[in-house]
Amino acid sequence: MANLFDEHRLYIIGYSELNIIGDREKLAQWRHKNMGPAYYKLGRKVIYRGADLNAWAASNRHDPNEPRA
After folding, report:
1. Among the listed residues 44, 9, 4, the one whose alpha carbon sits nearest the alpha carbon of residue 28
2. Three-state DSSP class for 57?
3. Phi, psi (degrees; rounded to nearest 5) at 62
4. Which residues contact 10 (CB under 8 A, 6 or more apart)?
5. 68 lies in a domain?
6. Which domain of life does this protein belong to (predicted)?
7. To bridge 5 with a disulfide, which of 43, 46, 51, 53 should be the other Cys (CB 3.0-4.6 Å)?
8. Is 33 within a domain?
9. CA atoms within 13 A on the CB side of 37
10. What is the residue range of 35's domain?
């Protein structure tokens, strides 16, 4: 799968690139519910690694051509 995010980049809440997976409020809901991609919380700043975002996206991939288990 092609990467949706740059593997070596850090994404901070507010970066428009994060809107591909959800807006600021959706990401906050996921963090509150312990869902969504892995993140770092440094003080009030929330930071996502590109590698973590890509891994999360890959784990949520659904292929309608693959047989279901």
Report:
1. 44
2. helix
3. -125, 130
4. 47, 48, 49, 50
5. no
6. Bacteria
7. 53
8. yes
9. 27
10. 10-59
* Parallel, antiparallel or unpaired: strands 45-49 and 40-42: antiparallel
**Do the domain assignments include residue 55?**
yes
Q: Say how far apart CA 49 and CA 68 lie, in whole Å.
A: 31
Q: Is the pLDDT of residue 69 over 80?
A: no
**One-letter amino acid for residue 69 of the chain:** A
Alpha helices in 1-69 (DSSP H): 24-32, 50-59
CA quadruple 61, 51, 10, 38: dihedral sign: positive
How many structural domains are present in the chain? 1
What pLDDT digit, counting tens, does each position of 6-53 carry? 999 999 999 999 999 999 999 999 999 999 999 999 999 999 999 999
